[in-house]
Specification:
Radius of gyration: 22 Å
CATH topology of the largest domain: Glutathione S-transferase Yfyf (Class Pi), Chain A, domain 2
Bound molecules: adenosine-5'-triphosphate
InterPro entries: DNA-binding_RecF (IPR001238), DNA-binding_RecF_CS (IPR018078), P-loop_NTPase (IPR027417), RecF/RecN/SMC_N (IPR003395), RecF_2 (IPR042174)
Subcellular location: Cytoplasm
Strand order of the largest sheet: 2-1-4-5-6-7
Keywords: ATP-binding, Cytoplasm, DNA damage, DNA repair, DNA replication, DNA-binding, Nucleotide-binding, SOS response
Main location: cytoplasm
Structural class: alpha/beta
Function: The RecF protein is involved in DNA metabolism; it is required for DNA replication and normal SOS inducibility. RecF binds preferentially to single-stranded, linear DNA. It also seems to bind ATP.
Amino acid sequence: MKLESITLTNFRNYHQLSLSFSSSVNVFLGENAQGKTNLLEAIYVLAMAKSHRTPHDKELIKWDSDYGKIEGRLMKRNRSIPLELIISKKGKKAKVNHLEQSKLSHYVGMCNVVIFAPEDLNLVKGSPGLRRRFIDMEIGQIKPIYIHELSQYQKILQQRNALLKDLSTKRSSMTAMLDILTEQLIELAAQITIRRFQFIESLRGWAKKVHASISRGMEDLDIAYISSTPNVLENMELSKLKEEFVKGFQTVREREIQRGMTLIGPHRDDLQFEINHRDVQTYGSQGQQRTTALSLKLAEIELINQEIGEYPLLLLDDVLSELDDFRQTHLLETFKQKVQTFVTTTNVDGLDADVINQATSFIVRNGEVVSQTQD
Ligand SMILES: Nc1ncnc2c1ncn2[C@@H]1O[C@H](COP(=O)(O)OP(=O)(O)OP(=O)(O)O)[C@@H](O)[C@H]1O
């Protein structure tokens, strides 16, 4: 798929802006704090109906404005599809083909994106929350129902945690209510876990291939999904998974009441990476950890193509200069013809000359695009 054009109204520091894009590489070039990342963020928000930088939608609206709007024209399966997302203080409205969607989960997934930002370089070494967010964002765009399941899980988890807290401080004695919430949580936990296992199984194959290629065949990457619930393992059927969750929650019940929180479930799970059978988080060099993060992102591109039948857009936020020439060239060359790419950078010096010569560059200054060079 390709994003043909975008129009921003009161989005971040843009009052009004319309851009048409090249179907290969687009570079947003400018000094710091001019609005380069804001442009990339606009594309991400148009696709995912939320920002990769902030959970607070109101930050996306231009200061002193009541609403912000992003319109885009997406070329997908040889059809040009108008997309529109309006963000106001009351909430968000999403339109496809000018028709308002009753649920955002019906909208997300129309346009697929893979973003690689500086914080993703910490995907391997950083906190488990970062890795869970990575899994959730990716499954969400391939299987939009997952977004709904996840938000239901979060709601019940919150209720359950509140009740456990009251039980721990003896403000409540409603253990029957705890049983009901546990049962509801298990239904969703099992469904979420099975989707995550399936996702990791598919991602693993692609990540192995990509990583072998970036490391010139020297390194074998393996990924495992580590469940916080004992005996919950890959390839288990849904009914078996549920049984293990039931047993797990029985085992931790007293401890949960003492501690006042839910101790097992998808919100505590993690990913583990091994290179040549050694744990990358513990033993990997910084370079290996970065290459692993890059391999995961590139694997995701292939996985989306496998599931959706079209390549996603690739958004690279200030990361090219963080990668050495070989990794940079690998990243851009592999997908040059297939994947429409958007890059932000303050300086083209660190970038591969061939790539720059073929790219369309947009010079960004103080919330405006002041010039554009075509390839
Ligand atoms: N809601 C908003 N309304 C108006 N301006 C905003 C809003 N949010 C952010 N800005 C402005 O946007 C600018 C930052 O833009 P952006 O994050 O795109 O920078 P950048 O060009 O990517 O810079 P860097 O290279 O430092 O990352 C800042 O000047 C900030 O004050």
